[in-house]
Here is the input.
Amino acid sequence: MAVAPTDVAVPGALEAVTGPSVGPRGRWRSRLGLWIPAGLVALIFFLCFVWPLIGPVGSPTGGNILEANLPIGSPGHVLGTDAVGNDEWARLLYGGRASLEIALAVNALGIVVGGLLGAVAAYLGGWRDATIMRFLDVFIAFPALVLALAIAEGLGPSEVHVIWALAFFSVPAFARLARAETLRIRELNFITAAGLSGTGHLRTLLRHVMPNIVAPLMTFALLGMGIIIVLEGALSFLGLGIPPPAPSWGNMISSGESTLSVTPRYVFIPSIALFITVVSFNLLGDALRSRWSQR
Amino acid sequence: MSSTSAPLSTPLAARAGRLSRLAGSPMLRFVVRRLLAAIPVLFGVTLLTFVVMNSLPGDAAQELLGAQATPAEIHELSIKLGLDKPFLTRYGEWLHGLVTGHLGHSLSSGQSVTSILGSDLPITFELILFAFVLSLLIAVPSAILSARRPGGIFDRFSMVFSMGGLSIAPYVLALLLVWVFAVKLGILPAIGWVPPDQGLGQNIRCLILPAVSIALPLMCFYARLLRADLLEQLQGQDYVVTARAKGAGPWAVLMRHTLRNSAFGLITVIALNLGTLLGVTVIVEDIFGLPGIGHELLSAISNRDTPVVEGAVLVFALVVVLANLLADLLYSALDPRVRYGGSPN
Amino acid sequence: MSANGLSPTGSDVEPLGGGGGAASVGAPLLEISGLRIDFHQAGNVVRAVDGLTYAVPRARTVGLIGESGCGKTVSSRAIMGLLPPSALITGSIRFEGQELVGLPERRLRELRGSQIAMVFQDPARSLNPTLRIGPQITEAIRLHSDVTKTAAHDRAVELMELVRLPAARQRFRQYPHQLSGGMRQRVMIAIALAAEPKLLIADEATTALDVTTQAQIMELLRDLQQRLGMALIMISHDLGLAASFADEVMVMYAGRGVERAPTRKLFEHVRMPYTRALLDAIPRLENASHSPLAAVAGQPPDLAHEQVGCPFSPRCPNATEKCREHAPPFQEQEPDHLWACWHPCGLERPA
Here is the structure.
């Protein structure tokens, strides 16, 4: 949103955003710095993906209108119910699952397609590089919102379509980053050495280039988890994401907006969940990046 | 007296000398080359928009007349609006209009697109400007203070705070601000817009909450970026050691040496940000009811009002392209190594 | 013939007054004794300097020679207090009688530039690439004296002429990248001289330059030193350079001083096997073509680990069990010649 993927797809910016990389850190502080966010992320995933299958979680939809607007702490509904009687806790978990699925898919697409595209472009250089980047520039320049809107309007809002729409954000961003990183190492001696020893292009790319750019790409992907979740929320907020009654944090926030003055909890419960999730991913990204850069 | 013996110090000759140097200057060539390269991008963007708009179900005529209209009525209106012509013809006509300086007319209201954009753009522009100024006013001093004492109390606090600020979604922040300041405290308006000429004070009041919603994540981002850059110099660069060896104190080193150099990077990022920021404004304008260009785009899409969408998208894309160009330009212009060219003499 | 007995070509280096190197006229300008520097990094302690002792007399040149990582740069940065906070310094560094170790930062800042100055190895990186040359010099001037901008400007041009920078006035407004390596180093020297320091530390000042420029810069330094009566610490890995330009040589290894003597005495009677090996490693024109270069076998020790015995023993041809178990003390064994070795070269000792 304010910090779009393409802003951070610059090597320096990535480190800056993912946290203080300076100053000596004691062993314990680094350990905690890694395991706490990792634990949080694991917990979030567990709650959203596993817990509904094994634990006493109700259904996020099909609520009883007679049970509408129950406050927090009501019997049987620990976080209350929404305006039509659905259990908030269930909606929170299922909404989280939808948001996380989307974020994972979009980042996976980004890393694989974008990463490959960027690395190949930088590696080949010349007009091929220019063409690929021009092509991606169109998508960067294009207000992706319009595309997302159009996809939603034209094909109908659904989880898959949101993934497609957001992939148009993430693939160019990853491509840019991969390209910048590849350019940086292309000139390094071991690449030249590989070429001199007769290694073919594809092999050089796979065995020498890719492993060295994976670290910044992964850090970016972790940061991207937070960004994409927020973006997905934005789309759902505008009514173009996951269609109700299926929950997503974005559409929960959006439907809560109209009753903000009366029942602010409808906005703030998913907002807090969103915030905690994004912070956890950001902190995890920071911890992993400082680990990797110390090698 | 032959002209070749005329000294170069004569005004005319000097100006001619300067001009020819400018025309051949790498800077100008760079700008021209980038502008030329931007044209296919813009072309691609507008074409893509047209394709997308065209593929959406329904059309402007349908939207205008509503659900009750008969197919005959819709058909009649669409002929009037020129919607029956084939895709390429319509795009071609629009392009032709663009080249001659006309962006067409809104299919919904008939108003000229240029005038619509003309009234919307200043609002969005004011919002973005406000947000930028706000974010920089806080980010720059914060980064300097952090870099002065890394690991100190202020630094640790601001790192935690900025991590939070970066992680919060702008729409969540907007709603939070509305809830606190409009609902609970009632001191700022939740929605609405008052143009500056109808009262500057009111105008600013309408913009505060939306600007802060945008500015907060930005400010955290810039503060971290600047801080990281300053620290990288302070701890890694040899010229910092030289400055210290001269006897310069920490503030002198910070301000005179490192801040100058960091400014380049920051300016580049800000210019890049300009383009992506437009996406945020759509949501913020929606929440706060500001009649800016983002808002316009949203309603135009749902009205299938293609000329307005094209106009707005073109503006967006143009801003992104120009912002990128500006970023690259600023970076090279400010770096003396590029400006004064390399070879030692 | 110049005041301190050095001939212009530098080929005869005579010790000052009959071997009284350190005990020259008056107290030494700089006295380092028992200097120990530890770095604390992520739980490890690296002992970069271990008990370094030497002195620099006024207006003399001391050559500090050693391999990379032997502690020569670290020790000299400690003199100016330019080490990062992770460094723990113990021992004594006295400048004109004043103790520098533990001196508050404010006081150190007053000394930097005005009393002690430094010239660094890589002028390309040591000059701020986005500032013009002139302001980088005037900064050094104005930090220590209250002069007007114009006066500082003129003094800067004066300095640039002093360091033999061609077209000084024009250079003032140029950027570092517009100058060649040699010229940049002259600018660094001008910056260092700006506040008329009593001691100049040249840290591998010519290493990054080509041989011809190297000679020019060294000549310049020597000339300036004589004219300004400045003391010079010349840090290098090049023993040959020390031979030509230093009055006294201090050889370092693994953070310790291992041999110290006035230059001539050192080269005439090399005692430390390490110094011997360094000398032998210098390629000689007289040797037959394609004869292998005599390199010093092995690697310097890892300073993160405690040293037992003589640090050079793994690589030393004279090493015995005694060397590996007991570190030899660094002490004056012959008049004015100190070394740390149980089995020095050229001296018959019973096995």
Remarks:
- Chain B touches chain A through 68 residues (CB under 8 Å).
- Chain B has 14 helices and no strands.
- The longest helix of chain B spans residues 250-288.
- Residues 52 and 167 of chain B are 32 Å apart (CA to CA).
